[in-house]
Amino acid sequence: MSQDNWIISxxxxxxxxxxxxxxxxxxxxLRDFRDYLLAxxxxxxxxxxxxxxASDMSGxxxxxxPGYAYLSGLEAGWLVLGLAVGSYANWxxxxxxxxxxTERAGDALTIPAYLERRFDDRSGVLRITAxxxxxVFFLFYTSSGLVAAGKLFEEVFGLPYLGAVAVGTVxxxxxxxxxxxxxxxWTDLAQGLLMAAALLVVPLLVVAxxxxxxxxxxxxxxxxxxxxxxxxxxxxxxxxxxAVLSLMAWGLGYFGQPHIxxxxxxxxxxxxxxxxxxxxxxxxxxxxxxxxxxxxxGASWLDPALADGDAEKVFIVLTAQLFHPLIAGLxxxxxxxxxxxxxxxxxLVAASALxxxxxxxxxxxxxxxxxxxxxxxxxxxxxxxxxxLLATDPDSTVLDLVAYAWAGCGATFGPVILLSxxxxxxxxxxxxxxxxxxxLTVWGWKTLEGGWFDLYELLPAFLVSLCLCLLVGWLRPATxxx
Length: 482
Description:
Helix content is 76%, strand content 0%. The protein is mostly helical and 482 residues long. α6 (111-118) packs antiparallel against α7 (125-157).
């Protein structure tokens, strides 16, 4: 290994040790199962905001989005716009109502538990169905993070892909096992700050080295002017309505992401939500604009250009070319931060579904907190193992895996959560119909192609779920179901 790689490796190792230290510190504050799953509902505004943002964006922010912008140019701006609007709407419409609603619902610790109690479902069908759907889609979501980890270690250290994925999995599992939700939230705060800094530093340095924004734009214009047109693709063909709708529709996914909603549930009080919202939206905008900047400046700087299959490595390649190994190590650690900040949250949500919503409902209603924490930790290892198996294909792309999981959770839970907070006629039957309709539409739409089936599956699935909720709610209002 070269001296440069030794320096980068040492930086990575120091970062990983720091994350494990935070996990250990959080473990010292665990008192009961409520602490393990929601940190005792005691998160402050900065931790709530940056933990929600970091767990949302994942390795997609430093690999998937820069790679997409590298290949497609300003076309990626439609995706950023949709996500920015969706994130703001989620903080504005869901956060201030979900926090007290879950407390009123018997201090529900998970989304499936909240739905069961909100709709007075004594059969357990609603909770079990929701938990199973969380497990299915979060396996793909967690797998996307492990794929990103494999690509990072493979590119930086030349490690075999499977070995790299295994190392990333072990690190994430260890600190999630130790400290639960508090460890995940503390590490997300640190990782969110590092991600934002890295995404701003890299494109700004490229622009400075090229002689300013004008010179960078001129360089990009000379290479491919279509990249600077938000209304055309990289080949210069006009973007169709389906393409724009597909990109904008990503914003609908926010309403149904359990790992983001869990941050709202864990906030210390409703009064701090507005301050947390401002911090979160500022971080999200800076991060996504920085990611687009990485892709665009990479397209203007790199010569020869990256192959299409390597586009998601544009941040890694720029960092290696531009910075001293010590700084490069810190910036590349931001990718690991992005991966870990989401994968740990997904692992914990999936483990919560397995332990709190399936095990406790079926076998352990009187189980002690100590036993439930042990079950949750066993669930973390189980989910991580299956996600690792899904990530063993080195040809998987981070963006494709994230897109499927994002659509699944967004369509399955988004309309149900929104209507549970705003519509009194919403009941158990309409919630169940909405969840199943949304989830099945995502699966079915994904298997078809051509014409309208090229539309991102989240939009039709969200609309199907919403319509089913409204239709069944009107036919069988909540009062008639209790």
